[in-house]
Specification:
It contains nine helices and eight strands. It is α/β, with parallel strands linked by helices. It has one domain: Alpha-Beta Barrel (TIM Barrel), CATH 3.20.20.390. The longest helix is centred in the middle third of the chain and has 18 residues. It binds SN-glycerol-1-phosphate. The site of SN-glycerol-1-phosphate has 14 residues, from β8.
Length: 254
């Protein structure tokens, strides 16, 4: 029971080479669009759905997650919370994030302690995830709100040292994050430096806007590529299949 969804994520990597993650921001997808849009995304090759956002202006979180899970069928629905207000027992699992690139105790452990009793009561599967912000050209919401500096994009060794520390602490995943709508994506040099040394599956996201770019992240060593912003415009959803193919066809270095 404990690691069910995590094992499914590992299975996706084994079967597809790398996984395509669609990030759904509850403020950007209307409740009425869920029943039609989510099955379409799954049909076109989305492997995992993340739900999360910086804020919650529009939606009741819990019913939103319930509706997405209902529409997603067997596809894993994983919470990627922007705050402790984004928890729901209807998800398959929760990325238990620690912002390890910061030195801000609230984002390293404070919020995790606040959330722990709620998560325990919900019986949610947790997946410990080392979250690292990477400099991406402009100040992101995450950097601003956490009052912390992202890792300089020309310092892959700094990213490697953080990711190794996460591995030694027993975390399950590493997330290299350029930030939602980032001007520049996480550099391939950094992805490949981390994936060469660290054994944990690597999630890469932020500012990815084309199948080619997504494929490059996999070729550099990403096990999961996350795309959110680009698909907030529903007219782009016709390209979901192309992103999925590009991610599944690309090969991670052995
Ligand atoms: C943000 O990594 C995710 O947390 C996805 O970024 O919204 O820019 O695709 P985008």
């Amino acid at each position: 029971m404990a690691e069910r969804t995590f094992q499914r994520l590992q299975h996706i990597i084994r079967e597809n080479g790398a996984g395509f993650v669609l990030l759904i921001d509850p403020d950007k997808l209307s409740r009425s669009a869920i029943a039609e849009s989510i099955p379409r995304a799954v049909e076109q090759g989305v492997d995992v759905l993340f739900i999360g956002g910086t804020f919650l202006f529009q939606q009741e979180f819990n019913p939103f997650v319930e509706a997405v899970k209902k529409a997603a069928g067997d596809t894993p629905v994983v919470l990627f919370p922007g705050s402790i207000f984004q928890l729901s027992p209807h998800a398959d699992a929760l990325l238990y994030l620690s912002l390890i690139s910061s030195r801000n105790a609230e984002f390293l452990i404070g919020n995790q302690v606040q959330a722990a009793p709620l998560v325990w009561k919900m019986g949610l599967e947790t997946i410990a995830c080392a979250y690292m912000m990477v400099e991406s050209g402009k100040l992101t919401s995450a950097a601003f709100l956490s009052n912390s500096h992202p890792i300089p994009r020309d310092k892959p060794d700094v990213a490697v040292a953080h990711a190794l520390a996460a591995q030694y602490l027993g975390m399950k995943l590493v997330y290299l994050e350029a930030g939602s709508g980032a001007q520049q994506t996480v550099p391939e040099e950094m992805i490949s430096a981390v994936s060469r040394v660290v054994e944990l599956p690597l999630i890469v996201g932020g500012g990815i806007r084309s199948p080619e770019e997504a494929a490059k992240k996999v070729a550099a060593g990403a096990s999961f590529v996350v795309v959110g912003n680009y698909f907030e415009d529903q007219t782009n959803w016709q390209l979901l299949g192309e992103f999925a193919d590009a991610i599944h066809r690309s090969r991670r270095p052995q």
